[in-house]
Structure to design on (392 residues):
């Protein structure tokens, strides 16, 4: 039996090292323009990126990776399983509970993945020479990571726009290691979504406007994480009890039915980060927020974004027990964004106590946007009371 060609031998060794470091899936692709680059450009032109201006700023680099990393010859795409097999029925039944995307239940994946990719680079250099150049990216650089993951055979891009592996599903974080080493590339996996459209039909906001096309502006993950200002009023009722991200399009995917649990304990739920009690969250100070979510991806939303989302979720739950906390937030929270969404929530819940809180706030509020929310909330309660009177 003859020896393997050098490129193939090096490629096999790189993948062995990646698995030794702890990555669940690994594949290799060349440094070429991404296969769906034009689709990405069209996606931006249609405004589907919403307020994520960094996507437009990095467009040239995303479409031509060889231009900003001219020394790179190969891309090692890796995936790390974060699946914690808990579901809504497993959540505590006390209090008013919200929902956090499972990718944020544990420690921040950016730090974990970046550390592991640096370990992989160090091992590659130890075997292939310190002159090997490398650059690691985890969801932060100008890289179309799903394109290169699919090109490398890690999975295919599903209709819900996630990378799906035929046996392991889609509960994966993705990362890339650009190398100056010329490696043998892997073959892509064919698309196996077929005629299934469960993800498209399950999306409560209609964010999947077609197979493989996501309008971020309607996506719950965008609305609760990336959007920094006021949540569009027509979207708020559709967000439900989600306060950070959304998993619905992955929950319904048949390829996730038998997904394996992650062996990385740092991705398992922190205390209070799986289906958390909402009312205590609404009273967090800036310092308490930073302390509670230290080392968590939830810090990305910042306090004002998370509490905005909490107020929307409480409004959608429509439970009177939330009125005192929402009233306190409306009267005392230092951030107008939080106060405005607390007013909306009180309008959704309705009743005498909610109206009283809104009227007290109306007498003291000076920010026009919040005053508008208070007025609209009072109008909503008035409509509710008129409807109730008409039914008697």
């Amino acid at each position: 039996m003859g020896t393997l060609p050098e490129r193939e031998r090096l490629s096999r060794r790189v993948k062995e090292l990646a698995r030794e470091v702890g990555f669940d899936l690994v594949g290799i692709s060349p440094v070429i323009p991404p296969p769906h680059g034009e689709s990405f450009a069209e996606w931006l032109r249609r405004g589907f990126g919403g307020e994520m201006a960094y996507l437009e700023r990095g467009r040239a680099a995303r479409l031509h990776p060889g231009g900003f990393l001219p020394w790179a010859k190969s891309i090692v795409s890796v995936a790390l399983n974060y699946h914690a097999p808990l579901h809504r029925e497993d959540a505590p039944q006390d209090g008013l509970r919200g929902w956090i995307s499972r990718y944020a239940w544990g420690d921040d994946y950016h730090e974990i993945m970046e550390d592991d990719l640096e370990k992989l680079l160090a091992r590659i250099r130890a075997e292939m020479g310190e002159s090997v150049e490398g650059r690691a990216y985890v969801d932060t650089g100008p890289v179309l990571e799903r394109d290169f993951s699919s090109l490398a055979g890690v999975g295919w891009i599903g209709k819900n726009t996630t990378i799906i592996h035929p046996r392991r599903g889609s509960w994966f974080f993705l990362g890339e290691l650009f190398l100056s080493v010329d490696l043998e590339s892997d073959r892509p996996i064919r698309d196996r979504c077929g005629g299934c459209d469960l993800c498209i039909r399950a999306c409560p906001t209609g964010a999947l406007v077609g197979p493989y096309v996501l309008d971020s502006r309607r996506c719950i993950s965008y609305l609760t994480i990336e959007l920094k200002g006021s949540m569009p009023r027509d979207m708020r009722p559709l967000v439900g009890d989600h306060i950070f991200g959304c998993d619905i399009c992955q929950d319904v995917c048949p390829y996730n039915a038998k997904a394996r649990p992650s062996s990385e304990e740092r991705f398992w739920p922190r205390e209070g980060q799986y289906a958390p009690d909402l009312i205590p969250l609404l009273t967090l100070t800036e310092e308490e927020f930073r302390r509670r979510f230290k080392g968590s991806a939830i810090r990305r939303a910042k306090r004002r974004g998370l509490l905005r989302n909490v107020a929307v979720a409480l409004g959608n739950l429509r439970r009177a027990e939330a009125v005192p906390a929402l009233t306190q937030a409306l009267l005392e929270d230092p951030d107008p964004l939080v106060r405005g969404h607390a007013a909306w929530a009180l309008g959704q819940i309705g009743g005498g106590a909610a109206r009283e809180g809104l009227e007290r706030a109306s007498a003291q509020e000076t920010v026009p946007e919040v005053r508008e929310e208070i007025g609209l909330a009072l109008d909503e309660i008035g409509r509710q009371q008129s409807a109730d009177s008409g039914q008697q």
Remarks:
- The chain has a mean pLDDT of 95.
- The beta strands are 25-30, 74-81, 99-100, 134-137, 156-157, 163-164, 172-179, 208-210, 213-214, 242-244.
- The two ends are 89 Å apart (CA to CA).
